[in-house]
Structure to design on (273 residues):
Protein backbone atom coordinates (compact mmCIF):
# COMPACT_ATOMS: atom_id res chain seq x y z
CA UNK A 1 0.00 0.00 0.00
CA UNK A 2 1.58 3.24 -1.12
CA UNK A 3 1.51 6.47 0.84
CA UNK A 4 -1.72 8.36 0.02
CA UNK A 5 -1.75 11.93 -1.16
CA UNK A 6 -3.54 14.72 0.63
CA UNK A 7 -5.82 17.15 -1.15
CA UNK A 8 -5.87 20.58 0.52
CA UNK A 9 -9.25 21.43 1.99
CA UNK A 10 -11.29 24.54 2.61
CA UNK A 11 -13.89 25.44 5.20
CA UNK A 12 -17.32 25.10 3.59
CA UNK A 13 -20.89 24.95 4.74
CA UNK A 14 -22.39 21.50 5.10
CA UNK A 15 -24.14 20.44 1.88
CA UNK A 16 -27.79 19.63 2.51
CA UNK A 17 -28.94 19.93 -1.08
CA UNK A 18 -29.07 16.20 -1.77
CA UNK A 19 -27.22 12.92 -1.66
CA UNK A 20 -23.44 13.15 -1.57
CA UNK A 21 -21.98 11.00 -4.31
CA UNK A 22 -18.33 11.89 -3.71
CA UNK A 23 -17.82 8.66 -1.79
CA UNK A 24 -19.05 6.29 -4.48
CA UNK A 25 -16.93 3.21 -4.97
CA UNK A 26 -14.41 3.70 -7.76
CA UNK A 27 -11.95 1.05 -6.58
CA UNK A 28 -13.42 -1.82 -8.56
CA UNK A 29 -14.21 -3.75 -5.39
CA UNK A 30 -17.50 -5.64 -5.30
CA UNK A 31 -20.14 -3.45 -3.70
CA UNK A 32 -23.01 -4.71 -5.83
CA UNK A 33 -25.51 -4.87 -2.98
CA UNK A 34 -28.04 -2.17 -2.24
CA UNK A 35 -26.54 0.94 -0.65
CA UNK A 36 -28.24 1.21 2.72
CA UNK A 37 -26.48 4.20 4.21
CA UNK A 38 -23.73 6.69 3.45
CA UNK A 39 -22.00 8.48 6.28
CA UNK A 40 -19.11 10.89 6.49
CA UNK A 41 -16.41 8.23 6.18
CA UNK A 42 -18.09 4.99 5.11
CA UNK A 43 -20.81 3.50 2.93
CA UNK A 44 -22.85 0.52 4.11
CA UNK A 45 -24.12 -2.03 1.56
CA UNK A 46 -26.48 -4.96 1.89
CA UNK A 47 -25.28 -8.48 1.14
CA UNK A 48 -27.17 -11.67 0.29
CA UNK A 49 -27.28 -12.36 4.04
CA UNK A 50 -29.48 -9.90 5.98
CA UNK A 51 -27.34 -10.48 9.10
CA UNK A 52 -24.19 -9.36 7.27
CA UNK A 53 -23.34 -5.96 5.78
CA UNK A 54 -20.46 -4.69 3.67
CA UNK A 55 -18.63 -1.56 4.86
CA UNK A 56 -16.76 0.53 2.30
CA UNK A 57 -14.20 3.04 3.65
CA UNK A 58 -14.15 6.38 1.82
CA UNK A 59 -11.36 8.91 1.36
CA UNK A 60 -13.63 11.75 2.49
CA UNK A 61 -12.48 13.75 5.51
CA UNK A 62 -14.74 15.98 7.58
CA UNK A 63 -14.44 17.99 10.77
CA UNK A 64 -16.51 20.37 12.88
CA UNK A 65 -19.77 18.55 12.16
CA UNK A 66 -18.96 18.40 8.42
CA UNK A 67 -18.40 22.17 8.10
CA UNK A 68 -14.86 21.40 6.97
CA UNK A 69 -14.58 18.91 4.13
CA UNK A 70 -11.82 17.44 2.05
CA UNK A 71 -10.30 14.22 0.81
CA UNK A 72 -7.20 12.26 1.73
CA UNK A 73 -6.47 9.87 -1.12
CA UNK A 74 -5.92 6.40 0.27
CA UNK A 75 -7.40 7.18 3.69
CA UNK A 76 -10.07 4.56 3.18
CA UNK A 77 -7.48 1.87 2.56
CA UNK A 78 -5.42 2.91 5.59
CA UNK A 79 -8.37 3.11 7.97
CA UNK A 80 -9.75 -0.21 6.77
CA UNK A 81 -6.37 -1.86 7.40
CA UNK A 82 -5.85 -0.27 10.83
CA UNK A 83 -9.40 -1.14 11.90
CA UNK A 84 -8.84 -4.72 10.81
CA UNK A 85 -5.69 -5.08 12.92
CA UNK A 86 -7.35 -3.51 15.96
CA UNK A 87 -10.62 -5.43 15.68
CA UNK A 88 -8.57 -8.64 15.52
CA UNK A 89 -6.60 -7.55 18.59
CA UNK A 90 -9.80 -6.85 20.53
CA UNK A 91 -11.39 -10.13 19.45
CA UNK A 92 -8.29 -11.97 20.68
CA UNK A 93 -8.76 -10.21 24.03
CA UNK A 94 -12.33 -11.46 24.32
CA UNK A 95 -14.10 -8.27 23.22
CA UNK A 96 -16.70 -9.01 20.57
CA UNK A 97 -16.93 -6.71 17.55
CA UNK A 98 -19.00 -6.52 14.40
CA UNK A 99 -15.98 -7.43 12.24
CA UNK A 100 -16.24 -10.69 10.30
CA UNK A 101 -13.58 -10.45 7.61
CA UNK A 102 -11.78 -7.89 5.48
CA UNK A 103 -12.59 -8.53 1.85
CA UNK A 104 -10.63 -5.84 0.02
CA UNK A 105 -8.41 -2.80 0.44
CA UNK A 106 -11.44 -0.72 1.46
CA UNK A 107 -14.11 -3.25 2.37
CA UNK A 108 -14.98 -5.47 5.30
CA UNK A 109 -17.93 -7.72 6.03
CA UNK A 110 -19.53 -6.91 9.37
CA UNK A 111 -22.44 -8.13 11.46
CA UNK A 112 -25.59 -6.08 11.06
CA UNK A 113 -26.23 -4.10 14.23
CA UNK A 114 -28.98 -1.90 15.59
CA UNK A 115 -26.75 1.04 16.47
CA UNK A 116 -27.17 2.55 19.92
CA UNK A 117 -27.34 6.33 19.26
CA UNK A 118 -24.49 7.18 21.61
CA UNK A 119 -20.86 7.94 20.91
CA UNK A 120 -18.78 6.64 23.80
CA UNK A 121 -15.59 8.67 24.27
CA UNK A 122 -12.75 7.48 26.49
CA UNK A 123 -10.15 10.06 27.52
CA UNK A 124 -6.76 9.18 29.01
CA UNK A 125 -5.26 12.66 28.61
CA UNK A 126 -6.95 16.04 28.40
CA UNK A 127 -7.23 17.29 24.82
CA UNK A 128 -9.67 18.80 22.34
CA UNK A 129 -13.09 19.85 23.59
CA UNK A 130 -12.31 18.73 27.14
CA UNK A 131 -9.60 21.40 27.39
CA UNK A 132 -11.81 24.00 25.72
CA UNK A 133 -14.75 23.35 28.03
CA UNK A 134 -12.95 22.82 31.34
CA UNK A 135 -9.66 24.72 31.14
CA UNK A 136 -7.68 21.56 31.85
CA UNK A 137 -4.19 21.86 30.34
CA UNK A 138 -3.44 19.93 27.17
CA UNK A 139 -1.95 16.55 28.00
CA UNK A 140 -2.96 16.37 31.66
CA UNK A 141 -3.36 12.72 32.61
CA UNK A 142 -6.83 11.69 33.71
CA UNK A 143 -6.87 9.07 36.42
CA UNK A 144 -9.05 7.15 36.19
CA UNK A 145 -9.82 7.43 32.50
CA UNK A 146 -12.85 9.58 31.73
CA UNK A 147 -15.83 8.02 29.92
CA UNK A 148 -18.29 10.37 28.21
CA UNK A 149 -21.49 9.85 26.22
CA UNK A 150 -22.49 12.00 23.26
CA UNK A 151 -25.83 11.88 21.46
CA UNK A 152 -25.40 10.76 17.83
CA UNK A 153 -27.37 13.55 16.20
CA UNK A 154 -25.73 15.85 13.66
CA UNK A 155 -28.62 18.32 13.73
CA UNK A 156 -28.01 18.87 17.45
CA UNK A 157 -24.24 18.88 17.10
CA UNK A 158 -23.67 15.54 18.89
CA UNK A 159 -24.12 17.04 22.38
CA UNK A 160 -22.51 15.71 25.55
CA UNK A 161 -25.12 13.93 27.68
CA UNK A 162 -25.38 13.36 31.39
CA UNK A 163 -26.78 10.15 32.81
CA UNK A 164 -29.98 11.94 33.73
CA UNK A 165 -30.39 13.24 30.18
CA UNK A 166 -29.86 9.76 28.73
CA UNK A 167 -32.61 8.48 31.04
CA UNK A 168 -34.93 11.39 30.20
CA UNK A 169 -34.45 10.81 26.48
CA UNK A 170 -34.95 7.04 26.91
CA UNK A 171 -31.94 6.38 24.69
CA UNK A 172 -30.78 3.29 26.56
CA UNK A 173 -31.65 1.49 29.82
CA UNK A 174 -29.38 1.85 32.85
CA UNK A 175 -27.91 -1.65 32.55
CA UNK A 176 -27.02 -1.00 28.92
CA UNK A 177 -25.19 2.20 29.82
CA UNK A 178 -23.27 0.31 32.51
CA UNK A 179 -22.28 -2.30 29.92
CA UNK A 180 -21.13 0.37 27.46
CA UNK A 181 -18.97 1.97 30.14
CA UNK A 182 -17.45 -1.36 31.17
CA UNK A 183 -16.74 -2.37 27.57
CA UNK A 184 -15.24 1.03 26.79
CA UNK A 185 -12.82 0.78 29.72
CA UNK A 186 -11.89 -2.80 28.79
CA UNK A 187 -11.22 -1.69 25.21
CA UNK A 188 -9.14 1.18 26.55
CA UNK A 189 -6.93 -1.21 28.48
CA UNK A 190 -6.30 -3.36 25.41
CA UNK A 191 -5.70 -0.48 23.01
CA UNK A 192 -3.55 1.57 25.41
CA UNK A 193 -1.22 -1.38 25.91
CA UNK A 194 -1.13 -2.14 22.20
CA UNK A 195 -0.38 1.44 21.17
CA UNK A 196 2.26 1.69 23.88
CA UNK A 197 4.04 -1.11 22.03
CA UNK A 198 3.80 1.06 18.92
CA UNK A 199 5.46 3.97 20.80
CA UNK A 200 2.16 5.84 20.42
CA UNK A 201 0.15 7.43 23.23
CA UNK A 202 -3.59 6.79 23.01
CA UNK A 203 -4.89 10.18 24.16
CA UNK A 204 -8.60 9.57 23.62
CA UNK A 205 -10.94 7.81 21.22
CA UNK A 206 -14.57 7.40 20.16
CA UNK A 207 -16.48 4.12 20.08
CA UNK A 208 -19.87 3.11 18.72
CA UNK A 209 -21.82 0.05 19.76
CA UNK A 210 -24.90 -1.79 18.55
CA UNK A 211 -27.16 -4.75 19.22
CA UNK A 212 -26.98 -7.90 17.10
CA UNK A 213 -29.92 -10.19 16.36
CA UNK A 214 -29.48 -11.81 19.78
CA UNK A 215 -29.58 -8.37 21.48
CA UNK A 216 -25.92 -8.70 22.42
CA UNK A 217 -23.90 -5.48 22.53
CA UNK A 218 -21.01 -5.50 20.03
CA UNK A 219 -18.42 -2.90 19.13
CA UNK A 220 -19.12 -1.39 15.71
CA UNK A 221 -17.92 1.41 13.42
CA UNK A 222 -14.10 1.65 13.09
CA UNK A 223 -10.95 2.30 15.11
CA UNK A 224 -8.52 4.50 13.21
CA UNK A 225 -6.80 7.90 13.21
CA UNK A 226 -10.24 9.28 12.30
CA UNK A 227 -11.65 8.15 15.65
CA UNK A 228 -8.59 8.18 17.92
CA UNK A 229 -6.29 10.95 19.10
CA UNK A 230 -2.76 9.52 18.81
CA UNK A 231 0.57 11.09 19.78
CA UNK A 232 3.98 9.92 18.61
CA UNK A 233 6.13 9.22 21.66
CA UNK A 234 9.36 9.96 19.78
CA UNK A 235 8.85 13.74 20.04
CA UNK A 236 7.50 16.26 22.55
CA UNK A 237 6.73 18.82 19.86
CA UNK A 238 2.99 19.50 20.15
CA UNK A 239 2.60 19.72 16.37
CA UNK A 240 4.95 17.00 15.19
CA UNK A 241 3.63 14.38 17.60
CA UNK A 242 0.07 14.47 16.20
CA UNK A 243 -0.70 11.32 14.17
CA UNK A 244 -4.46 11.61 13.79
CA UNK A 245 -7.33 13.64 12.37
CA UNK A 246 -6.22 16.70 14.34
CA UNK A 247 -3.72 17.28 11.54
CA UNK A 248 -6.71 17.80 9.26
CA UNK A 249 -8.80 19.74 11.79
CA UNK A 250 -5.97 22.13 12.65
CA UNK A 251 -4.42 22.41 9.17
CA UNK A 252 -1.11 20.99 10.41
CA UNK A 253 -0.25 19.42 7.06
CA UNK A 254 1.30 15.99 6.38
CA UNK A 255 -2.02 14.31 7.10
CA UNK A 256 -1.35 11.38 4.79
CA UNK A 257 2.12 10.76 6.26
CA UNK A 258 0.69 10.65 9.79
CA UNK A 259 -2.00 8.12 8.88
CA UNK A 260 0.53 6.02 7.00
CA UNK A 261 2.90 6.10 9.99
CA UNK A 262 0.16 4.80 12.28
CA UNK A 263 -0.57 1.95 9.86
CA UNK A 264 3.08 1.00 9.65
CA UNK A 265 3.44 0.98 13.44
CA UNK A 266 0.21 -0.94 13.99
CA UNK A 267 1.12 -3.53 11.35
CA UNK A 268 4.61 -4.00 12.80
CA UNK A 269 3.30 -4.37 16.35
CA UNK A 270 0.65 -6.84 15.22
CA UNK A 271 3.29 -9.18 13.83
CA UNK A 272 5.08 -9.28 17.22
CA UNK A 273 2.20 -10.83 19.12
Amino acid sequence: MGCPRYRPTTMVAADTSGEDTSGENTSGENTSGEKLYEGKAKIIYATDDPAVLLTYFKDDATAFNAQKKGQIEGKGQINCAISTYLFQRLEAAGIETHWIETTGDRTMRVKALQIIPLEVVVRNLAAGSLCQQTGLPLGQRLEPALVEFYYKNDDLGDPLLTGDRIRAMAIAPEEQIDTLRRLALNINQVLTKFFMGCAITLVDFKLEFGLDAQQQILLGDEISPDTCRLWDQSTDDETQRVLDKDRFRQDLGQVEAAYQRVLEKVAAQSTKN
